[in-house]
Amino acid sequence: MSLARDIPNVLASFRTTRRDMWNWRAVQDYAFEAEQAVPLLADMADDYGAEGVIPVVQKAISSTFRVLMRADDSGGLIQSVIQELLTLHAELCSQSPPAPATLTGWIQKQQFGELGEYFHVDVVDYADALRAAGIVRFEAHLDKRRQALTTPFDGRPDKEFSHDDEWHARHAVLYNLQRLAVVHRDEEAIVRTHGGDMPRAHLRAAAAKALREAGFTARAIVVAREGMTLSGAAHQQQECGELWATMAIEMGTDAADAASQVFERWPTASNARAWESATGTAWPQSREHAIERMRERPWELIAYLIETNDIARAWTEGLRASENGTSLHPQQWDNLVDRYSRIDPVAVLPVMAQLIDDRLVEANTRAYPSAIRRMTKLRIAARAAGRPEISDDYLADLRRRYARRPSLIQRMDAAGL
Question: Does the predicted model carry a pTM greater than 0.90?
Answer without folding.
Answer: no
